[in-house]
Amino acid sequence: MADVALQPRTARRPIREASRWDLIKANRNYLGFWFMLPAMVFLVLFLAYPLGLGIWISFTDARIGRPGAFVGLENYEWLWGDSIFWLSVFNTLLYTSVASVIKFAIGLYLALLLNENMPFKAMLRALVLIPFIVPTVLSALAFWWIFDSQFSIISWSLKQMGLITDNINFLGDVTWARICVIFANIWRGVPFVAITLLAGLQTVSPSLYEAATLDGATSWQRFRFITYPLLTPIIAVVMTFSVLFTFTDFQLIWAMTRGGPVNATHLMATLSYQRAIIGGVLGEGAAISNAMIPFLLAAIMVSWFGLQRRKWQQGENND
Amino acid sequence: MTDLPTQRLDLKGVLSGSARTAAADDHSVGMSYLESLPRRLVTLYLPLGIIVVVLLFPFYWMALTAIKPDEQLLDLNTYNPFWTWNPTFKHIHKLLFGSYYPLWLWNTMYVAICSTVLSIFASVLAAYAIVRLRYRGAQWVGGLIFLSYLVPPSILFIPLATVVFQYGLFDTPFALILTYPTILIPFSTWLLMGYFKTIPFELEECALIDGASRWQILTKIVLPLAIPGLISAFIFCFTLCWNEFIYALTFLTSVQNKTVPVAIVNEFVDGDVYRWGSLMAGALAGSLPLVILYAFFVEHYVSAMTGAVKE
């Protein structure tokens, strides 16, 4: 289109001085504010404000439908003498520590196995992650059925093998119920640990192993002095997440036992739901969930130090 | 800006085992030839087989229960419980046509998509601003967002319930659509920050010189290059929404508004001994959409998961 090219440019604007408004428009702080606005609105309205509100509610005697009056530390004092609360703290610590340790052990082992060369590697890795994808509640229901007191497939299999004579009352017995919920939690958590550690393992250069083998290192020594140190940073982060989410777990317990039998599987989260929403005593429930904060802070500190350590390990002096 | 692409974990290679992973470049055999087959059978295939069977058994059991006739479900002795020769679609039929299940599926989908879209929008802007605008205090804000990722829903649900009630959102889908982003935004911002960092700065400088505004740079240069990251964030957020339980349990009360996880736990669990078939059918139908999504985007999914912990 030659005519177009030949047309004189009439409407060319003269270059003008940058006005104050132009400067503001290009200012990174001003732009940053507008870019951050949507995220900040959500996080302030529905995260920071409720977090503060939760602490305030725990100092009041609020109930559902009635804003409470300030009662000071009364809720906490009441919890201090409440044996069910202490039982739930014990359960939470037991649940978190046992599940996390086993998740870590099996997860690391599975990651090492998946890192080997074998046929159908990609498919196996994809299959392993499925328990993590499926909503917790739905898989917890499957476990509820597997651990049914009358029609449990496990009881049936053990009976067929002649190991037991009566059905095991999986979710009705205190010890068994704890074992079952911990097992279900491990089952769901292992894929996450395994796949993230696998991602870390794949960054380890195989020449390190070859060199160590030439120097006569055994497979344990190769793991202990090559794999483990190089994996420490990612282990720290993965385990922090794992501990955090196990500690505050709610849905698995709620779908499987609702805290029973005789509160043996009540975690702090489920107890606070029961007291606050079902019982209607918001103040006390908020106090229970706030009691989790010190533990969470401890976990976050560990994470932070883990991250720091990661930075220097990735530094150039450390190769 | 020392975070060079080469130092990052190669996320895509995690599942395929290929690509540029350190373990796979040009000596793909590694040292495995040193081990004999019988030894590998015992040390590798056997334990791996056991773990995979344990991990997948509940799904098999779920699926089998969903198609077994009632009398076979409760009679373990006359029929082999591990298989059935006369599958029935009775439970699934009851689920689809005798309950609100399709409505619950729709609710879940609606809430998940809306809050995911909202969160991705907010996170893209926030991540871009933190990584590239680097306004004053951006580092701190990045740290705060990471911290907010660590605030679990189980300590927020009580005050949030009162907040939701005050805003008049109680028992509406908006109660969830507006609260889920608090879980999703920290995660996806953190993930997208990692992706944006890998996009060369020079591209943006060129665009700035050519007179592009920040908004144009974001939509025309950064976003097209960050599409894998966006897909990862989207899928992972969607899965998190689908999986969320405690908010949905607390903020919704009427049967028609519930999401799948909550509805199954509350509406299907009654005293009926024959409930297992439809319960498992419901659990299966609630899991399938995610599993199908996962099957199509395995690599994105893994990169989202590992991306969340790598930074």
The helix count of chain B comes to 16
Largest sheet of chain A, in brief, is: none
Q: What's the quaternary structure here? A: heterodimer
**Outline type of chain A:** flat
Largest interface: A-B, 109 and 111 residues
**Number of helix segments of chain A?**
16
Mean pLDDT across all amino acids of chain A: 85
- Class computed from helices, strands and strand pairing of chain A: mainly alpha
Shape call of chain B: globular
Query: Strand content of the residues of chain A, in percent?
Result: under 5%
Structural class of chain B: mainly alpha
Topology:
The complex is a heterodimer of chains A (319) and B (311).
Chain A: H1 2-6, H2 20-26, H3 28-57, H4 74-80, H5 83-114, H6 121-128, H7 130-133, H8 136-146, H9 153-160, H10 174-201, H11 206-214, H12 219-247, H13 251-256, H14 268-278, H15 282-290, H16 293-314
Helix pairs in contact in A: 5-10, 5-12, 10-12, 12-16, 14-15
Chain B: H1 13-16, H2 37-67, H3 70-74, H4 90-97, H5 101-133, H6 138-149, H7 153-166, H8 173-179, H9 181-197, H10 201-209, H11 214-225, H12 227-243, H13 246-251, H14 260-267, H15 275-296, H16 298-310
Entry keywords:
heterodimer; A: 319 residues; 16 helices; B: 311 residues; mainly alpha; 0% strand; disordered N terminus
What would your notes on this structure say?
The complex is a heterodimer of chains A (319) and B (311). With 319 residues, chain A is mainly alpha-helical. Chain A is built from 16 helices and no strands. Chain A has helices spanning 2-6, 20-26, 28-57, 74-80, 83-114, 121-128, 130-133, 136-146, 153-160, 174-201, 206-214, 219-247, 251-256, 268-278, 282-290, 293-314. In chain A, helix 5 runs antiparallel to helix 12. The longest helix of chain A is centred in the N-terminal third of the chain and has 32 residues, at 83-114. Chain B has helices at 13-16, 37-67, 70-74, 90-97, 101-133, 138-149, 153-166, 173-179, 181-197, 201-209, 214-225, 227-243, 246-251, 260-267, 275-296, 298-310. Residues 1-13 and 15-27 of chain B have low confidence and may be disordered. At the A-B interface, helix 3, helix 5, helix 6, helix 7 and helix 8 of A face helix 1, helix 2, helix 5, helix 6 and helix 7 of B.
